[in-house]
Input
Amino acid sequence: MVAQNNKYKILVVDDESSLREMLSILLRRENYQVEIAADGEAAFAKAQEINFDLIISDIQMPKMTGIELLRQLREHENDVTVLMITAFSSTEEAVEAMKLGAYDYITKPFKNDEIRLVIKKALEREKLQQENRQLKQQLGQRFSFQSLIGKSPAMAKLIALMERIAPSQANVLITGESGTGKELVAKALHQNSDRKKHPFVPINCGAIPENLLESELFGHEKGAFTGADKRKEGLFESADNGTLFLDEIGELPMGMQVKLLRVLQEREFRRVGGTKNIPLNIRLVAATNQDLIERISTGDFREDLFYRLNVVSIELPPLRSRLDDLQLLINKFYQRLTGKDEYNIQKSALELLLNYDWPGNVRELENLIERCVVLGESDQLTVDCLPDQIKKKSCNTYAGLCNLPDEGLDLDSWLADIEKTVLLQALEKSGGVRKKAAELLGINFRSIRYRLSKLGIGEEN
Output
């Protein structure tokens, strides 16, 4: 215990020199790092310079009281743990200090063992708070706009739009294929808004059985239905002052669409079985991989609800339209799994990845990288670790051309067209450098020069 205590910094604040000295001696014997101050003003100045883990302060002091010291600390966003000391039998001032955020108070005179125990518990609380602050900081970094990986024009446009949207209170509808990262975008919007200190509550509208959905969303009162033996807070209520994320909004049953529309219009709701309207302060972000306009035309989605949700829209691009970001995404997932910065990719494997359609988008890529890290025999992503659907994709590129027409075809002309197409693609991928194009096709420079000449494609500059 003694070996750990030396990392804790404690500030003792009291206008009585004898008490300051007594506490300093006691705490240093416990191997804490101790600073002292004779009044609140001096203590506040020290707290501006040093990050203390605990401040032990008398309440009644000249110049600045302990309560005023606490108030000043909180106004300057210093959430250090504060323990108050009072010599009065009345605890009114101590209770006021607790309301302002003091951890606890102790009355004079006190026993050494008593204050040791209180200090130990206060520091344990401070340690938990520090861990919580670190987690929040990591969360903020993870869901910052900079964490949205990509340098492609599509991603640059998306991030610029999100930066404008995040500070507003407008409802947002996120559209995009499955696996494009709709919840990640919703969390980034929340984390970069003034609601970030309040809850982000995600709900998958398609994952909750219809008969339970209303109770899950709005909560219920005791006795509202069989099995409701106590009042339950719903997810809407849990998100109050924060952000409510309704994923797969297109799966919401028509009856619940009507109730959701009323909540958005009135900004209040009732628990199931309740009679009281409860005010609600949320920002709503919804997401779908469906075409809601089409669902409106078929009568499966309410048009008035759509316009309530679609105040601002964000369309996420599929991975196949932002392949410039593929290498960045691969390295990010690899770093997350292994702690290493860059994943070495075999050239033939990279070609297969670039030619794949990625129906599962970024989520599919993340799962693939995990597979390759687990199955790979080296620190390189090779063709061997790729699943069959990716390896077979390139083999099937011209599969449809192998269906011989009834009227037949000119084989030489057909093969020449395919050869020309592949040669031109190789030149495009290599930036017109024939030596690199030859390497992509597994042939030598003399061979590619001959083939291009035969097909009437001129020499490079």
The two ends are 75 Å apart (CA to CA). The chain has four domains: 2-139, 160-224+231-316, 320-395, 406-454. The chain is about 50% helix and 15% strand.
